[in-house]
Amino acid sequence: MRLGYNRRAAKKANGKGVPGRGPQYPHPKNMQLCYKQGAEEGKMSADPFTVELQMYMEMKGFPHKVHILNPEASKGLPEWFRKNNWDGILPMTKYDKEQYKLGSAETMMALEKKFKVPLMSHGGMGAGRFRGKTVKNLTLSLLKSVRPYDSTNPDWVDLLAEFRQLDEYLVGCHNKEGDYLKAKRFSLWDLRMVPALYSLVAVANYFKPGFAIPDEVSRLRSYCNHAFEDPIFKKYCPSVRQIVRYFEPKLNVRIMLEDSVV
Question: Distance from first CA to last CA of the chain, Å, rounded?
Fold first, then answer.
């Protein structure tokens, strides 16, 4: 009985519910999401935390209202945002009257715990030890470093170690729970990892030439090639130019891009 309900709810989450009535399964009420500037409707955001939450909301089918904010400007901020988010962390989510969540990971975990339909995989065995934030942080420190992508660069050594662990995880998931190449549907693990990996792969060579995912992590390379082409990621995937501009102020540099770079 429960399985049948899950199937019916999943169909409605994919837009097959009753027209004009919203999802016909338990979902957050009066949900509001706050994103950084650049995540306006119809536009792509270069912020990987925003992208992963946008993909999650698309897959769950939860109705929500979007606010585009700039906390540093202190203008146009909802009162509930000011009271519950002193540090201006984005994305931020408000739902069910007084539920507030800061950051994409906290939001997805809280919503998934309470609203399990449509059901999403958390990933394969051992997925919990990985956080997309690790790749994001290593990307920033790697691009700040003036050293090449080799063993003389501690940041590259750390990133390579992360790549190897990711590769081992993907090998262990083969034909099991969490195997994206089999399911062709993102898990929560994929939502955290894909935007972070793409930001690194897409622009690393613009800031410091010589980057490539090593051949030794072949499963990771294959995963990236397929996941980057997933329809839901392509819908929210930022352009290379956007990602470069996103990293420039963080690295205190300005990159001259050719007109062909979009």
Answer: 49
